């Protein structure tokens, strides 16, 4: 199973590891395809087929190969089960900032997995890649994702009205940011 060679393997709290996508992750893509929200805000296919799942994984590889960013699979070490993804997107890295996004399969939610993964990728981006500012966007109604961002050391900076197309409509987003100078209790950064 081939994975993008430039995506590092990162350890995260909670018995997790972050790694590049593999074709063996197709069951994760299939579960995410059945979610009512994930396909609206990502490139996960809304109707799963093996061909669509493989195309999704290959897109993740291209993103790394072309310098767009680092798409990580969140994997539970105990059973090597993929639980979701967190991506670090570098479109604005020349401006001193990068954007993160994350999602979990429904079966993996509610256990702090996303916060542990987001914290690990953020630490790596701030300390190893030396990106001064990380940001992410969350819809105001999504309290679970807002808590995840806050647990990972991100601070809310305000509502961006009509910021992002989600499905057929433009929606408000709360911008969260974490800077290299921010102190995050228990994070070591």
TrEMBL record:
<dbReference type="InterPro" id="IPR051908">
    <property type="entry name" value="Ribosomal_N-acetyltransferase"/>
</dbReference>
<dbReference type="InterPro" id="IPR016181">
    <property type="entry name" value="Acyl_CoA_acyltransferase"/>
</dbReference>
<dbReference type="GO" id="GO:0008999">
    <property type="term" value="F:protein-N-terminal-alanine acetyltransferase activity"/>
</dbReference>
<dbReference type="GO" id="GO:1990189">
    <property type="term" value="F:protein N-terminal-serine acetyltransferase activity"/>
</dbReference>
<feature type="domain" description="N-acetyltransferase">
    <location>
        <begin position="16"/>
        <end position="178"/>
    </location>
</feature>
<keyword id="KW-0808">Transferase</keyword>
<dbReference type="Pfam" id="PF13302">
    <property type="entry name" value="Acetyltransf_3"/>
</dbReference>
<dbReference type="InterPro" id="IPR000182">
    <property type="entry name" value="GNAT_dom"/>
</dbReference>
<dbReference type="GO" id="GO:0005737">
    <property type="term" value="C:cytoplasm"/>
</dbReference>
<protein>
    <submittedName>
        <fullName>Protein N-acetyltransferase, RimJ/RimL family</fullName>
    </submittedName>
</protein>
């Amino acid at each position: 199973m081939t994975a993008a060679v430039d995506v590092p393997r990162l350890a995260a709290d909670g018995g997790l590891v972050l790694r590049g996508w593999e074709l063996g992750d197709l069951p994760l893509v299939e579960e995410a395809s059945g979610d009512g929200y994930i396909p609206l805000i990502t490139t996960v296919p809304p109707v799963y087929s093996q061909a669509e799942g493989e195309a999704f994984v290959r897109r993740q590889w291209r993103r790394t190969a072309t310098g767009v960013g680092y798409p990580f699979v969140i994997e539970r070490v105990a059973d090597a089960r993929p639980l979701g993804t967190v991506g670090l997107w570098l479109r604005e890295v020349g401006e001193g900032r990068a954007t993160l996004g994350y999602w979990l399969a429904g079966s993996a939610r509610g256990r702090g997995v996303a916060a542990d993964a987001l914290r690990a990728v953020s630490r790596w981006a701030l300390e190893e890649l030396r990106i001064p500012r990380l940001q992410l966007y969350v819809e105001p109604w999504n309290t679970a994702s807002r808590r995840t961002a806050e647990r990972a050391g991100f601070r809310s900076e305000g509502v961006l009205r009509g910021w992002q197309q989600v499905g057929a409509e433009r929606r408000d987003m709360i911008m969260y940011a974490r800077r290299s100078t921010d102190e995050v209790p228990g994070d070591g950064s």
